[in-house]
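Q: Convert this sequence to structure tokens.
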Amino acid sequence: MGQTTRPRTPAKSRTRKRSRPAPTAEQQQARREAIDAAHEDMMARLEALASDPVEWLEFLKTVAEWGARYSLGNQILLMLQAAARGVEPQMFMAYGARDGSSGWRKHKRTVIAGQTGFKIWAPVKRRLREDEREAYEQRTGRRVVRDAQNRLPVIVANWKFERTFELSQTAPLPPWADNYVVPTVQVRRQVKLHGGKQAVLLDGDDPTGVYDDVVAMIRAEGYDYALAEPGSEYLGRANGVTVAGAGTRLVRVRDDVSHAQRIKTAIHELAHIRCGHLEQFGYVAPVAHRGREETEAESVAHIVCKAFGLDSEPYTDAYVMGWADGDIDVVRAAATTVLHVARDIVDELAPIAPFDGKRDPQPEDHTPAPAVAA
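A:
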């Protein structure tokens, strides 16, 4: 009688994913308290931004140094933790999957034993239920659209903490060398333009090398761009102007300013377009604004310029004094707009390469709260 051989089950099929034990009531309570505390800290920082222009300028400086990588909630959360620990972070990343396909493990690095991760907001997503559709539309003011399979959309139901680690908390895995290069905006730009080779600057006046691309981005928005003499039509005495209305869509920048000022002004005008200021007002006059719209555009320009190596003071304290009048909701909306637009411009000028990992997943139009209704 022949021996019957049972087919071997592939190893992958036999592998069972170990399920984590459900959190205890004490652990759940501790998590809720931690989320509430983080939210209170965030609101306190927003209140400081609303009341003190120096705080706003410091916020922009850190955003630029970190390459406009994070959304508002995570930017503030990481800033607070870094300040509490007395560290100047360069790069945050998750530990990574066990197979080495993501995070620090993908870069052949490991987290040093005993290191405590930094908390970061992560969305908890699920598909919207039919009985929630009407309430969701009323709460968000957005109409629910089904997908091609007639399914309701996936929504952010809540928020949770995930851990991320700073470069200084990691070390190379043997036998790999300690040669990790932080993918700054300038490094990403070189990868895009020169295949990773060191770029040679044309002159020292404008270190960014993005002027032509910014002009192309303005034109892609449907605006005619040109340099113009001071005092000419539309421009007047301003450094730059964006006009949209009465069949006219144009951007003009003074032709007698330095290359550094020229790129800063061009980005400023692009920011007006991307921030939606033209949609609201139809015309951005060539005068010195002191309101939220000008602050947003100037803030975006400062972040983008500094990220690419051009350090430009966004404005004096007197310039922004009173623009928010201490209104925390105005500051939160402005900060969210500035981060969203700056991130998009930076990413278009210096795309995130595969080795950088994914961008902060948090939607830009949300600030986590202790309890976000599903």
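The beta strands are 92-93, 109-111, 118-127, 154-166, 170-172, 224-228, 240-245, 248-254, 283-284.
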